[in-house]
Amino acid sequence: LAKTTQPISMDSYEGQEVNITCSHNNIATNDYITWYQQFPSQGPRFIIQGYKTKVTNEVASLFIPADRKSSTLSLPRVSLSDTAVYYCLNQAGTALIFGKGTTLSVSS
Amino acid sequence: KAGVTQTPRYLIKTRGQQVTLSCSPISGHRSVSWYQQTPGQGLQFLFEYFSETQRNKGNFPGRFSGRQFSNSRSEMNVSTLELGDSALYLCASSLLGGSNTGELFFGEGSRLTVL
Q1: What is the DSSP secondary structure assignment for residue B85, as one 8-state letter?
Q2: What does the longest C-alpha to C-alpha distance in chain B come to?
């Protein structure tokens, strides 16, 4: 049973910033919040991970409030190649529990 | 460095047969985990191996099994194939695995079709 809840789909245009919010139901103290991206017929690819506050890397930012009940993945200036499924997870090891994910569609 | 390599990429089997899939992790990674992805059930964890020992197992029947070799390469086997076993089987490697929350590196998967 997935422990996270996220929108099924989102639409955006090239150049816009996209924010995908996830609810982390019953997140445990030891869980990290992790986001993966998956293109059709490929394995998921790690995007970013955090425990609390804000984390930024070269492709995205992750915002986690103090209560850790939600997280927001921010993708700056998306392009057509960012069209994919995005998964948020409560991660406490390598036995990942994936939900349905959010299908992001970017148009020109 | 080379990523996670899975073979074969595509295969077709008939009901009742068995299949063996192979996964070569990133050099130096000792943990290999397997996932099944179907349109209906999404991505589901099968099992994880570390240093040739199964460390974690998902909720799949005993027809699904695996093993890991001393060089960390892993194989998974599905016996007595059923139509519902048609799926993309993904392998992921990580440095430590287990309760470690680090990044998993996924391969491109093996697409199994059962007729």
Answers
A1: G
A2: 38
- Contacts A46 to B, Cβ<8 Å: 103-105
Chain B within 8 Å of A28 (Cβ-Cβ)?
no
Question: Do residues A64 and A76 make contact, with C-beta atoms less than 8 angstroms apart?
Answer: no
For B67-84, write each residue's pLDDT tens digit: 999 999 999 999 999 999
CB contact under 8 Å between A98 and B88, yes or no, is: no
Task: Give A-chain residues touching B107 at CB under 8 angstroms.
Answer: 43
Q: Cα–Cα distance between A38 and A41 in angstroms, integer? A: 8
Q: Six-digit token pair at A43?
A: 């394995």
Q: How far is B18 from chain A (nearest CA, A)?
A: 23
**Cα dihedral B44, B49, B50, B56 in deg (nearest 10):** 60
The gap from C-alpha B7 to its chain's centroid, in whole angstroms, comes to: 11
First to last CA, chain B: 37
Tens of pLDDT, residue by residue over A21-76, are 999 988 999 899 999 999 998 999 999 999 998 999 999 999 999 999 999 999 99
